[in-house]
Amino acid sequence: MTAVRIGADPIEALMDEKVLITVDGLSPNEPVTIKASLEEDNKKFSSYGCFTSTRRGRVDLGTQPSLQGTYTGVDSMGLLWSMDQEPCHEWHIRFQKRDVTTPVVVNIKVFKGHITWDNLFDPHLKPLAESQIYRRYMAKSVRREKVRHGNIRGVLFTPPGPGPFPGVIDMYGGGGGLFEHRAALLASRGFCVLALAFFLYEDLTTVYTDITAVYFIEASKWFSGLPRVLSTGIGVIALSKGGEYALEMTRHSSTVKAVVLINAVSFYSDVPLKFSKGDIPCTEFHFDGIVPTINGLDFRKAHQPSDDFFIKAWESNASVLCIVGEDDHCLNPQLTDQFLKLVPKEHKHRFHVIKYPGAGHLIEPPFAPHCVASFHKLMGCIYDWGGETKHHSYAQEDSWRRILQFFTTHLVFNNFVQEKCKL
Q1: pTM, 2 dp
Q2: Does residue 338 have a pLDDT over 90?
C-alpha cells in the first residue's frame, strides 16, 4: 500500500497568504479526518474536517468539501480560520503571537475514519500521516527595532530596501500592553510601521487616567519625521479604545492622512483625556448597561454618548475608513453610524464605512482563530466579543484586503501624485 502523505503549497507563507493542503496515498473513497493544531503562549487551538477521498485516493481541500467538522463545505483555508480552543482550556482564550520573529507552527494530521470533536483529542489515536506548515506575521527580510525615544514606547518594523516607505502607526485597545503581529504583517506588505504602546507596557503609566493626548501627538511627530518614512503623510490603524487616540491624533497632527478604525471608539470615553490645554471631558460609562451572557459580559449598552462627545476628526484633512462588525458585543456598532452622521456634508467624501454582518469585535488579520470571548486584564472580567466564526473569518480576510488598498491609495498613490506635481 502507498504511504499516506500530506502536501502543502506553500509550506511556509505569511499569515495572510492562502495555502493548499492535499492528502495522497489513501484508498479509493476512504473516509478520513484531517486535524490542524497549533500552540502559542501555552494556548492550544485545533480544527478538523471530515472528507472522503477520490477514486484515486486523494483529498484536496481546495476542491473537496468537509462533510463535518469545525467547518463544512469547500474552503482551502477552512482548517485555519475555523480553529477553536482545545478542551484543555477551562476559560475562553485569545490567540496572540507574542514573538513575531518566529513562525506560527501548524501541525497537520490525517486519521482514518470520520472522527468527532469529542474524540479528536484521544491520545490513543494514531495518525496515518502528519506534517507541519509555517505561518509568519513578519517576513524574514523585515527589520524589527524596539523604540524608546523620549516618552515613546513601542516597536518599529521596516521593510527591506532603502525607503522611504509609507508609514503607519498601529495601536490596539484599552487592555494595554503591546501587540506586534498586525504591525509586522503590514511591514511585510511594504509599510514602515510603529506598533505603539500607550498603557501597561514597560515604564508607561499603569493608571488609565494618566494617559495624555500629548503622548500621541509626540509619537506622530517623531514617526512622521523619520527619514525612512515618506514625508507626505502617515496612516494610523487602531482597534477599539485605540480609535479614540487615533482620531485625536488627526486633530493635532497634519501629517496624519489616513486612519483605519476597527470597531473603534470614536468619542471621548471612560475617563477624561489629559491635555496640556485642559483635560478633555468624556461620556459617562454606564455600569448598569453591562449584560451577562453565556460567554462573558456584553458592553454594548455601557456607552451612550451624546453628539457633543464625538471626536471632530472632520476638522482635519485625514481620510477615515471605519470597519464595523455588526455582531460586536463590546461596542455598539450603531455608535459608528452616529459618528458618521455628524460628519458635515462637505467632508463626507473622506469618511467610509464597511459593515460585516455576523462579525464580532476583534477583527484581526486573515485566517487567525476567532476569539469569541477572553479575559480583559484591565476590567478583570471575561469580555464577550461577539461574532459567528465563519462570518467573522470573512470579515478578517476581506477587511485586510481593503485596509492594504486604503493605505496604498492614501499613502502611496497620493505621494506619487504629489511628487509628479512638483515636476
Answers
A1: 0.95
A2: yes
